[in-house]
Amino acid sequence: MTANNFFSISEERRRILLVEDDYVNQETLKASLGDIYDIVVAETGEEALEIIRAQYETLSIVLLDLNLPGISGIDVLSRIKGDPGYSRLPVIVMTADNEAEVECLTLGAIDFIPKPYPASKVILARILRIIELSEDRETLRLTERDQLTGLYNKEFFYRYVAQLDLYHKDTPADAIVFDVNHFHTYNDRYGKTRGDEILKRIANNATSYVNEAGGIVCRSVADTFMLYCKHIDNYEALLARLSACLDDDSISENRVRLRMGVYVNADKNVDIERRFDRAKMAADTARDHLTAPIGLFNHSMRETEILEEQLIDGFHAALREKQFVVYYQPKFDIEQDVPVLSSAEALVRWKHPTLGLVSPGVFIPLFEKNGLIQELDQYVWSQTASKIRDWKERLNISLPVSVNVSRINLYDPELTDKLLNITKTNGLNAKNLLLEITESAYTEKTDQIITTVKNLRKHGFFIEMDDFGCGYSSLSMLIDMPIDALKLDIQFIRSAFKEQKDTRLLEAMIGLAKSFEVPTIAEGVETAEQYAELKAMGCNTIQGYYFSRPLPEDDFEKLIVKALKKEENEC
Ligand code: C2E
Ligand code: CA
Ligand code: CA
């Protein structure tokens, strides 16, 4: 496929820039080529460069006479080839001086037409061939490159890494991942154009590094770059080089910082993608590390990797064998004098045959990365719904329970149907199964998420925005997003009540939610003092160790029976 086919303008005539001062030669070439091509003529080198600047996008090839008035043909050639913006334009040199051939080819000319001209058939065939070749090359360039930065995209990058390995089997190499600290905050604050500018600068720095030191680089996704290069020792110097000019005042008054993860002397027997996963793992340890934002893949990360493999490998058997168990943590309504049990949250644990009870903090982020979370979430929803039904049938207790809905589910067009199916199968209505959607989910592809959330609410589901205040906060979301409750993040509560207690923000947040008529739930409440203060601030519901830890279903059943009995007695 040629580039023109690629853009579906193959019917258009290709345009040739003919740089020739001799009138007779101009007319000869026009007669040979004019039927097939559009011809633009420049009579001097200056004029030629002017036309290239203005019409680069529409030119297919340059036919360049070496003998020109003003700047010479050689000069024009070296300027075209020396400018990264134009260097891809193929140039055929025309001269009577055979000696010049080698010099022109060295400078980047693609072919050479001797004067006096050969038969016009020969010239035509050569030009056509060269245009085709360069268009094929351009198509490849467009598919293998990232449009914004011009770097390779991830797929082609991996291919070229494989090639490098083939040619340099015994050369030690490093797999490196680097990205911008808090890039999403930067983007939100200064806008996408400035964000893009930063990414382009980083890409330029990285390109200049690999041009000099060897290796290849790509932008893998968003602000994440990958670099494969000969093993080096000084990663601080590399990081400084990649960060050059990012603090330029025209870009931002805030420092833009890169962080980097290195899989040093990457084992070439390990899958290429895995090598960069390791570098990424190392980069994650460098997060927020202001003085040395460089992480090296090490032994303990290797152990984490082994553990993760073990968890992923065991996932489906665990689902089949019901190794995932649901714990329940109560939520209490604190609006009255006496707290009233109002609902619960379903929290999954893994009773692993060899590892014992594994916390969701270990496996949920992992399954969120590889998509297994969708299956797990559905399992937990079903288990929870059937438990709610069981309590209803056996104990005549109707307690709504919230389940966690991981972000990836929100892109599933069948989400509402799946949830409705689960509630229906268990004879419940949508209000019995509350949905906690984590706040970070709201910051991506907002439109689609808003549509999904609206649809869920239309079918009667209650939506609780989870982890509010954990760093992705955008208060404007409260306006755009239809929600039924706001769950303040555990960290948020923690920092309000830490040693130098400062509850002003917490209070403001609760007040704000109230002004939007959205009830608040505080999680992670551990002490009587926290409980009393949150109550005084107007917080509606509380969840936390102060009342109870998450409990296995039997223990939780005892808790609800007792709580409801107590409530009855108090009535
Ligand atoms: P989360 O949704 O924010 O759940 C609250 C976490 O805080 C739970 O941790 C809970 O045990 C803990 N917690 C509650 N009260 C207190 C307290 O007073 N003090 C302290 N220190 N911690 C408290 P857990 O059970 O380890 O769950 C961790 C996270 O895993 C959950 O955070 C949730 O994001 C995720 N998760 C758990 N189960 C599921 C699930 O079925 N699906 C999905 N997608 N995520 C789940
Ligand atoms: Ca939750
Ligand atoms: Ca939470």
Keywords:
571 residues; alpha/beta; Rossmann fold; Alpha-Beta Plaits; TIM Barrel; 3 domains; five-stranded parallel β-sheet; 21 helices; 47% helix; disordered N terminus; binds ligand C2E; binds calcium ion
Short description:
With 571 residues, the chain is of the alpha/beta class. Strand 12 (340-352) and strand 13 (356-358) form a beta hairpin. Residues 1-11 have low confidence and may be disordered.
Describe the structure.
- This protein is an alpha/beta fold.
- The chain folds into three domains: 3-144, Response regulator (Rossmann fold, 3-Layer(aba) Sandwich), CATH 3.40.50.2300; 154-297, Reverse transcriptase/Diguanylate cyclase domain (Alpha-Beta Plaits, 2-Layer Sandwich), CATH 3.30.70; 307-570, TIM Barrel (Alpha-Beta Barrel), CATH 3.20.20.450.
- An eight-stranded mixed β-barrel has the order 11-12-14-15-16-17-18-19, surrounded by five helices. Strands 2-1-3-4-5 form a five-stranded parallel β-sheet, with helices on both faces. A five-stranded mixed β-sheet has the order 7-8-6-9-10, with helices on both faces.
- Helix 3 (45-55) packs parallel to helix 4 and helix 8 crosses helix 9 (192-213).
- The N and C termini lie far apart (80 Å).
- The relative contact order is 0.05.
- Residues 1-11 have low confidence and may be disordered.
- Bound molecules: ligand C2E and calcium ion (CA) (2 copies).
- One calcium ion (CA) binds at residues 466-467, 487, 489-490, 523.
Strand and helix map with partners:
Blueprint: H1 3-6, E1 15-19, H2 23-33, E2 38-42, H3 45-55, E3 59-65, H4 73-82, E4 91-95, H5 100-107, E5 111-114, H6 120-144, H7 154-167, E6 173-180, H8 183-190, H9 192-213, E7 216-221, E8 224-230, H10 235-242, E9 258-263, H11 272-285, E10 294-296, H12 299-320, E11 324-333, E12 340-352, E13 356-358, H13 360-370, H14 373-395, E14 401-405, H15 415-425, E15 433-438, H16 446-458, E16 463-468, H17 477-480, E17 485-488, H18 490-496, H19 504-515, E18 520-522, H20 528-537, E19 541-542, E20 551-552, H21 553-570
Parallel strand pairs: 1-2, 1-3, 3-4, 4-5, 9-10, 12-14, 14-15, 15-16, 16-17, 17-18, 18-19
Antiparallel strand pairs: 6-8, 6-9, 7-8, 11-12, 11-19, 11-20, 12-13
